[in-house]
Write a structure and sequence with these properties.
325 residues, alpha/beta, 2-enoyl-CoA Hydratase, Chain A, domain 1, three-stranded antiparallel sheet, 9 helices, 12 strands, 35% helix, globular, disordered N terminus
Protein backbone atom coordinates (compact mmCIF):
# COMPACT_ATOMS: atom_id res chain seq x y z
CA UNK A 1 0.00 0.00 0.00
CA UNK A 2 2.84 2.40 0.87
CA UNK A 3 4.61 1.70 -2.43
CA UNK A 4 1.39 2.27 -4.39
CA UNK A 5 0.77 5.54 -2.55
CA UNK A 6 4.30 6.75 -3.25
CA UNK A 7 4.01 5.88 -6.93
CA UNK A 8 0.73 7.80 -7.15
CA UNK A 9 2.33 10.87 -5.59
CA UNK A 10 5.27 10.67 -7.97
CA UNK A 11 3.02 10.41 -11.03
CA UNK A 12 0.95 13.39 -9.88
CA UNK A 13 4.00 15.52 -9.16
CA UNK A 14 5.55 14.58 -12.51
CA UNK A 15 2.36 15.51 -14.37
CA UNK A 16 2.03 18.84 -12.57
CA UNK A 17 5.69 19.66 -13.24
CA UNK A 18 5.20 18.84 -16.93
CA UNK A 19 2.12 21.04 -17.20
CA UNK A 20 3.82 23.89 -15.39
CA UNK A 21 6.63 23.97 -17.97
CA UNK A 22 10.21 22.87 -18.31
CA UNK A 23 11.70 25.80 -16.38
CA UNK A 24 12.84 25.85 -12.79
CA UNK A 25 9.80 27.76 -11.50
CA UNK A 26 7.62 26.64 -8.64
CA UNK A 27 3.92 26.57 -7.93
CA UNK A 28 1.70 26.54 -4.87
CA UNK A 29 -1.49 24.51 -4.53
CA UNK A 30 -3.83 25.87 -1.87
CA UNK A 31 -6.78 23.67 -0.94
CA UNK A 32 -10.13 25.44 -0.75
CA UNK A 33 -13.56 24.29 0.35
CA UNK A 34 -15.83 23.01 -2.40
CA UNK A 35 -18.91 25.13 -1.79
CA UNK A 36 -21.69 26.85 -3.66
CA UNK A 37 -21.87 29.56 -1.00
CA UNK A 38 -21.56 33.21 -1.97
CA UNK A 39 -19.93 35.59 0.48
CA UNK A 40 -20.88 39.26 0.49
CA UNK A 41 -17.76 41.42 0.44
CA UNK A 42 -17.43 45.19 0.62
CA UNK A 43 -15.64 46.83 -2.32
CA UNK A 44 -16.39 50.47 -1.44
CA UNK A 45 -17.06 51.74 2.05
CA UNK A 46 -20.02 53.94 2.91
CA UNK A 47 -21.41 55.92 5.81
CA UNK A 48 -24.88 54.34 5.76
CA UNK A 49 -26.20 50.83 6.35
CA UNK A 50 -27.90 50.70 2.95
CA UNK A 51 -25.98 48.95 0.18
CA UNK A 52 -25.60 48.77 -3.58
CA UNK A 53 -24.65 45.40 -5.09
CA UNK A 54 -22.47 45.06 -8.17
CA UNK A 55 -23.27 41.99 -10.28
CA UNK A 56 -20.95 41.26 -13.25
CA UNK A 57 -22.24 40.35 -16.70
CA UNK A 58 -18.92 39.44 -18.26
CA UNK A 59 -17.43 37.09 -20.83
CA UNK A 60 -19.36 34.65 -22.99
CA UNK A 61 -22.96 34.28 -21.81
CA UNK A 62 -23.58 30.54 -21.89
CA UNK A 63 -25.51 28.10 -19.76
CA UNK A 64 -22.54 25.80 -19.23
CA UNK A 65 -19.54 25.46 -16.97
CA UNK A 66 -16.23 26.97 -17.93
CA UNK A 67 -12.72 26.75 -16.54
CA UNK A 68 -9.81 24.42 -17.04
CA UNK A 69 -7.30 22.18 -15.32
CA UNK A 70 -6.85 23.16 -11.65
CA UNK A 71 -9.28 26.05 -12.15
CA UNK A 72 -12.66 26.61 -10.53
CA UNK A 73 -15.53 25.94 -12.90
CA UNK A 74 -18.55 28.24 -12.98
CA UNK A 75 -21.77 28.42 -14.93
CA UNK A 76 -22.32 32.11 -15.86
CA UNK A 77 -26.11 31.85 -15.93
CA UNK A 78 -26.26 29.93 -12.65
CA UNK A 79 -23.96 32.41 -10.91
CA UNK A 80 -25.88 35.42 -12.24
CA UNK A 81 -29.19 33.96 -11.05
CA UNK A 82 -27.76 33.13 -7.63
CA UNK A 83 -26.39 36.66 -7.20
CA UNK A 84 -29.73 38.22 -8.13
CA UNK A 85 -31.54 35.94 -5.69
CA UNK A 86 -29.15 36.92 -2.90
CA UNK A 87 -29.65 40.63 -3.66
CA UNK A 88 -33.41 40.12 -3.67
CA UNK A 89 -33.44 38.48 -0.22
CA UNK A 90 -31.24 41.13 1.41
CA UNK A 91 -33.35 44.12 2.53
CA UNK A 92 -30.20 46.21 3.01
CA UNK A 93 -29.50 46.00 -0.77
CA UNK A 94 -31.35 48.96 -2.23
CA UNK A 95 -30.13 48.83 -5.84
CA UNK A 96 -28.08 46.72 -8.24
CA UNK A 97 -25.40 47.76 -10.72
CA UNK A 98 -24.74 45.36 -13.58
CA UNK A 99 -21.07 45.69 -14.58
CA UNK A 100 -21.26 44.64 -18.25
CA UNK A 101 -18.26 43.60 -20.31
CA UNK A 102 -19.36 40.93 -22.80
CA UNK A 103 -19.69 40.32 -26.55
CA UNK A 104 -22.92 38.40 -25.90
CA UNK A 105 -23.70 34.72 -25.95
CA UNK A 106 -26.38 32.20 -26.75
CA UNK A 107 -29.91 33.33 -27.56
CA UNK A 108 -31.50 31.36 -24.73
CA UNK A 109 -29.02 32.40 -22.03
CA UNK A 110 -29.31 36.08 -23.00
CA UNK A 111 -33.10 35.87 -22.97
CA UNK A 112 -33.12 34.07 -19.62
CA UNK A 113 -30.85 36.66 -17.97
CA UNK A 114 -33.05 39.44 -19.38
CA UNK A 115 -36.13 37.76 -17.91
CA UNK A 116 -34.41 37.21 -14.54
CA UNK A 117 -33.77 40.96 -14.25
CA UNK A 118 -37.39 41.76 -15.05
CA UNK A 119 -38.54 39.27 -12.40
CA UNK A 120 -36.10 40.74 -9.89
CA UNK A 121 -37.41 44.26 -10.49
CA UNK A 122 -41.05 43.19 -10.31
CA UNK A 123 -40.48 41.29 -7.06
CA UNK A 124 -38.23 43.75 -5.21
CA UNK A 125 -38.88 47.15 -6.85
CA UNK A 126 -35.13 47.74 -6.57
CA UNK A 127 -33.59 49.76 -9.42
CA UNK A 128 -31.08 48.10 -11.75
CA UNK A 129 -28.40 50.23 -13.42
CA UNK A 130 -26.08 49.03 -16.19
CA UNK A 131 -22.48 50.22 -16.37
CA UNK A 132 -20.92 49.28 -19.71
CA UNK A 133 -17.17 48.70 -19.68
CA UNK A 134 -15.20 47.72 -22.80
CA UNK A 135 -17.99 45.86 -24.64
CA UNK A 136 -21.77 45.74 -24.31
CA UNK A 137 -22.70 44.01 -27.53
CA UNK A 138 -25.41 41.73 -28.86
CA UNK A 139 -26.55 39.36 -26.08
CA UNK A 140 -25.15 41.53 -23.29
CA UNK A 141 -26.98 44.53 -24.76
CA UNK A 142 -30.13 42.39 -24.88
CA UNK A 143 -29.67 41.66 -21.16
CA UNK A 144 -28.99 45.34 -20.42
CA UNK A 145 -32.30 46.39 -21.95
CA UNK A 146 -34.01 45.04 -18.82
CA UNK A 147 -32.29 47.66 -16.65
CA UNK A 148 -33.78 50.99 -15.58
CA UNK A 149 -30.79 52.98 -16.84
CA UNK A 150 -27.81 52.25 -19.09
CA UNK A 151 -24.56 54.17 -18.52
CA UNK A 152 -21.71 53.75 -21.01
CA UNK A 153 -18.12 54.87 -21.25
CA UNK A 154 -17.50 57.18 -24.22
CA UNK A 155 -15.31 54.49 -25.75
CA UNK A 156 -17.49 51.47 -24.92
CA UNK A 157 -18.46 49.24 -27.86
CA UNK A 158 -22.25 49.10 -27.96
CA UNK A 159 -24.76 47.42 -30.26
CA UNK A 160 -24.30 44.50 -32.65
CA UNK A 161 -28.04 43.92 -32.47
CA UNK A 162 -28.73 40.73 -34.37
CA UNK A 163 -28.57 36.95 -34.52
CA UNK A 164 -26.06 34.55 -36.00
CA UNK A 165 -26.00 30.81 -36.59
CA UNK A 166 -22.35 30.11 -37.30
CA UNK A 167 -21.74 27.03 -39.44
CA UNK A 168 -19.07 25.77 -41.82
CA UNK A 169 -18.89 23.22 -44.61
CA UNK A 170 -16.20 20.51 -44.72
CA UNK A 171 -17.80 18.26 -47.33
CA UNK A 172 -15.47 19.20 -50.21
CA UNK A 173 -12.43 19.02 -47.94
CA UNK A 174 -13.41 15.55 -46.77
CA UNK A 175 -13.89 14.48 -50.41
CA UNK A 176 -10.30 15.48 -51.18
CA UNK A 177 -9.13 13.38 -48.25
CA UNK A 178 -11.20 10.42 -49.35
CA UNK A 179 -13.41 10.66 -46.29
CA UNK A 180 -17.18 10.70 -46.26
CA UNK A 181 -19.85 10.62 -43.59
CA UNK A 182 -22.87 8.38 -43.79
CA UNK A 183 -25.27 9.25 -40.95
CA UNK A 184 -28.15 6.96 -40.18
CA UNK A 185 -31.03 9.33 -39.50
CA UNK A 186 -34.75 9.31 -38.95
CA UNK A 187 -35.55 12.03 -41.51
CA UNK A 188 -33.76 14.10 -44.20
CA UNK A 189 -33.50 17.23 -42.04
CA UNK A 190 -32.30 15.52 -38.87
CA UNK A 191 -28.69 16.59 -39.52
CA UNK A 192 -29.36 20.01 -41.07
CA UNK A 193 -26.53 22.40 -40.28
CA UNK A 194 -24.00 19.58 -40.06
CA UNK A 195 -20.47 20.72 -40.99
CA UNK A 196 -19.98 17.48 -42.91
CA UNK A 197 -22.45 18.24 -45.71
CA UNK A 198 -23.59 21.12 -47.88
CA UNK A 199 -26.49 23.12 -46.50
CA UNK A 200 -29.49 22.43 -48.72
CA UNK A 201 -31.85 25.26 -49.79
CA UNK A 202 -34.62 23.71 -47.67
CA UNK A 203 -32.43 23.51 -44.58
CA UNK A 204 -31.13 27.05 -45.13
CA UNK A 205 -34.69 28.38 -45.36
CA UNK A 206 -35.59 26.71 -42.06
CA UNK A 207 -32.49 28.03 -40.28
CA UNK A 208 -33.05 31.50 -41.71
CA UNK A 209 -36.63 31.40 -40.43
CA UNK A 210 -35.40 30.72 -36.90
CA UNK A 211 -32.80 33.49 -37.15
CA UNK A 212 -35.52 35.89 -38.30
CA UNK A 213 -37.75 34.85 -35.40
CA UNK A 214 -35.05 35.46 -32.79
CA UNK A 215 -34.09 38.71 -34.50
CA UNK A 216 -37.69 39.97 -34.31
CA UNK A 217 -37.68 39.16 -30.59
CA UNK A 218 -34.42 41.11 -30.12
CA UNK A 219 -35.76 44.13 -32.01
CA UNK A 220 -38.96 44.11 -29.97
CA UNK A 221 -36.94 44.11 -26.73
CA UNK A 222 -34.86 47.07 -27.90
CA UNK A 223 -37.80 49.04 -29.26
CA UNK A 224 -40.02 48.58 -26.21
CA UNK A 225 -37.36 49.04 -23.54
CA UNK A 226 -35.61 52.00 -25.14
CA UNK A 227 -38.71 53.68 -26.58
CA UNK A 228 -37.35 53.65 -30.12
CA UNK A 229 -39.95 53.26 -32.91
CA UNK A 230 -39.28 50.59 -35.53
CA UNK A 231 -38.80 52.89 -38.51
CA UNK A 232 -36.08 53.29 -41.15
CA UNK A 233 -33.64 54.71 -38.60
CA UNK A 234 -34.28 51.70 -36.38
CA UNK A 235 -33.32 49.42 -39.26
CA UNK A 236 -29.88 51.04 -39.27
CA UNK A 237 -29.56 50.57 -35.50
CA UNK A 238 -30.30 46.88 -35.81
CA UNK A 239 -28.28 45.87 -38.86
CA UNK A 240 -25.52 44.33 -36.72
CA UNK A 241 -23.15 47.29 -36.56
CA UNK A 242 -21.55 48.54 -33.33
CA UNK A 243 -21.34 52.10 -32.01
CA UNK A 244 -19.14 54.01 -29.62
CA UNK A 245 -20.62 54.81 -26.23
CA UNK A 246 -20.95 58.46 -27.21
CA UNK A 247 -22.86 57.59 -30.36
CA UNK A 248 -25.02 55.07 -28.49
CA UNK A 249 -26.28 57.83 -26.18
CA UNK A 250 -27.09 60.03 -29.16
CA UNK A 251 -29.07 57.16 -30.70
CA UNK A 252 -30.90 56.43 -27.40
CA UNK A 253 -29.36 53.00 -27.09
CA UNK A 254 -27.96 54.23 -23.76
CA UNK A 255 -29.02 56.93 -21.31
CA UNK A 256 -25.82 58.77 -20.43
CA UNK A 257 -22.05 58.75 -20.46
CA UNK A 258 -20.24 57.83 -17.28
CA UNK A 259 -17.91 55.50 -15.46
CA UNK A 260 -18.64 52.72 -13.00
CA UNK A 261 -18.52 55.22 -10.13
CA UNK A 262 -21.21 57.29 -11.85
CA UNK A 263 -23.43 54.21 -12.18
CA UNK A 264 -22.95 53.48 -8.47
CA UNK A 265 -23.85 57.06 -7.55
CA UNK A 266 -27.00 56.87 -9.68
CA UNK A 267 -27.92 53.52 -8.11
CA UNK A 268 -27.53 55.04 -4.62
CA UNK A 269 -29.73 57.95 -5.63
CA UNK A 270 -32.46 55.87 -7.28
CA UNK A 271 -32.45 53.26 -4.51
CA UNK A 272 -32.45 55.70 -1.60
CA UNK A 273 -29.04 54.49 -0.49
CA UNK A 274 -27.11 57.76 -0.29
CA UNK A 275 -23.78 57.14 1.39
CA UNK A 276 -24.30 53.37 1.22
CA UNK A 277 -21.47 50.91 0.85
CA UNK A 278 -20.92 48.85 -2.32
CA UNK A 279 -20.77 45.08 -2.15
CA UNK A 280 -20.19 42.12 -4.44
CA UNK A 281 -20.85 38.40 -4.13
CA UNK A 282 -17.84 36.12 -4.26
CA UNK A 283 -16.96 32.52 -3.70
CA UNK A 284 -14.79 32.00 -0.59
CA UNK A 285 -11.69 32.15 -2.81
CA UNK A 286 -10.41 34.38 -5.58
CA UNK A 287 -11.51 37.84 -4.40
CA UNK A 288 -9.09 40.73 -5.03
CA UNK A 289 -10.85 43.64 -3.30
CA UNK A 290 -11.91 46.23 -5.90
CA UNK A 291 -15.05 47.22 -7.76
CA UNK A 292 -13.16 46.21 -10.90
CA UNK A 293 -12.11 42.86 -9.40
CA UNK A 294 -11.95 39.82 -11.66
CA UNK A 295 -12.22 41.75 -14.92
CA UNK A 296 -11.16 39.42 -17.75
CA UNK A 297 -7.51 40.06 -18.57
CA UNK A 298 -4.59 38.09 -20.00
CA UNK A 299 -2.47 36.16 -17.50
CA UNK A 300 1.31 36.73 -17.70
CA UNK A 301 2.96 33.57 -19.00
CA UNK A 302 6.47 32.28 -18.48
CA UNK A 303 7.98 28.88 -19.30
CA UNK A 304 4.50 27.63 -20.12
CA UNK A 305 3.46 24.96 -22.58
CA UNK A 306 0.00 25.78 -23.93
CA UNK A 307 -2.06 22.61 -24.43
CA UNK A 308 -5.06 23.15 -26.73
CA UNK A 309 -7.41 20.67 -28.30
CA UNK A 310 -8.56 20.97 -31.92
CA UNK A 311 -11.70 23.10 -32.25
CA UNK A 312 -11.31 24.29 -28.61
CA UNK A 313 -12.05 27.88 -29.64
CA UNK A 314 -15.26 26.97 -31.49
CA UNK A 315 -18.59 27.63 -29.88
CA UNK A 316 -21.17 24.92 -29.41
CA UNK A 317 -23.54 24.76 -32.38
CA UNK A 318 -26.51 27.03 -31.84
CA UNK A 319 -28.08 30.45 -32.30
CA UNK A 320 -26.25 33.41 -30.79
CA UNK A 321 -26.74 37.05 -29.96
CA UNK A 322 -23.01 37.55 -30.37
CA UNK A 323 -20.57 40.14 -31.67
CA UNK A 324 -17.87 38.35 -33.69
CA UNK A 325 -15.45 40.91 -35.18
Amino acid sequence: MRLSSCLTRCVCLTLLTFLAGCGSGSFLITPVSDTSKLDQVTVAEGSASAKVAIIPVEGMLLDEQNGGLLQASENPLSLFTQELEQAAKDDSIKAVVLRVNSPGGSVTTSDTMYDEILRFKAKTHKPVIVSAQEVMASGSYYVSCAADKIIVNPTSIVGSIGVIFDTFDLEDTLDKLGVRTDPIKSAPLKDMGSPYKHLTPEARAIMQGMVDEYFARFKDVVSSSRGIPENDAFTTLTDGRVFSGTRAVELKLADQLGRLDDAIDLARQMGGAEGGKVVMYKRPFGYTGSIYAEMPMPTPKSNEMNLKLPFSDWLPTGFYYLWQP
